[in-house]
Amino acid sequence: MKSLFDLPRAVWLLGLVSFCNDAASELVYPLVPLYLASVLLAGPRALGLIEGIAEATGSLLKLFAGVLADRTRSAKPWVVGGYGLAALARPLLAFASSWPSVLTLRFADRVGKGLRTSPRDALLALSIDERQRGLAFGLHRTMDNLGAVIGPLLAAGLLAAQVPLREVFLWATLGGAAAVALALAVREPARETAPVVVPFSWTLRGLPGPFRRYLVVLGLFTLGNSSNMFLLLRARELGFPEYQVPLLWALVALTAAVFSTPLSALSDRLGAPRLIVGGWLIYAGFYLLLGFNGHPALLWPLFGLYGLFMAATEGAEKALVADLAPREMLGTAYGWFNMIAGIMLLPASILFGWLWQQAGATVAFGFGAGCALAASLLLRGWVFAGEPQRSR
Description:
Layout: H1 2-5, H2 9-28, H3 32-38, H4 44-72, H5 76-89, H6 99-126, H7 133-160, H8 165-170, H9 172-184, H10 209-223, H11 229-237, H12 245-270, H13 272-292, H14 299-324, H15 330-343, H16 345-359, H17 361-381
Helix pairs in contact: 2-7, 2-9, 4-6, 4-15, 4-16, 5-6, 5-9, 6-15, 7-12, 7-14, 10-15, 10-17, 12-13, 12-14, 13-14, 13-17, 16-17
């Protein structure tokens, strides 16, 4: 606990920014599939197309924003701008009258995420000692997930009070404005040395071999990790009450919030790869059980298990990036990491939606579990092959 409260002010501020932003984002997020299905009458294929395009296109910006943050030696403008764009886009969903309009606004929201994510991760890594990376990223994920608890709870309360879906979206304005105000208060740490200018290359020039192999394995896992909205759609398909769907997602966020900091801090001692493999195995089990499960009552423990997967992997995956990449290229490294994790959502979501519609939910969820199992084996047996694994 002493180490936690000794973390720099910038780490806590960035955590509060994510808390407010996710309270607004997760107020909207679990309602989008319901809005598409019940109001706009769009099916799983449209949902996969919307989420795939929005996430993948926005993810391209994660790389370029990270590279430019390294080149300009300034991350804060990208962070503030990204949160600002998302804060403007989310409430406008209240005025969407067709699924292409939803696609446009989800795209704008993800562009904002693309602009801020890699510079924010680099800013966080530069603000802390390397022995506390897991702890700091775990705290950030905890604050992020606490916001993701508040959002769905507020959404459920508003729906229970008979507030129309369109009006619920407008409440996202409050959290978005608070996130931008807090981001403006973050002080960027001074960079001690002159930047080492490495020309940008699509071949990842200047980044070490284990980091490149890590990206390949991450891409394989993400191919089976389609939009989380499919999980909520599956719950609704199994007969879960509509007003309780946001509560189900709040359980995921609450579980992740409780366990993110201790599990990510554990990666500072045991090594991030072990935590990541454990989380991916939990993910595979969750997908198999959700694909074959036919009883709504089992969804509560299953979605709690999914929150445990998030807690074990979200902080550890980002801490491993900082372990493997040179300090002067952290923005670029996080750009590659976030871009791969995001751009693969396009084929993942489209493929998942197609498999579901053509062959059924069991086949779609089974495919996701298979990708997770294969990625776990490769991370343990291939990423660090022939090289001593770095420890913190």
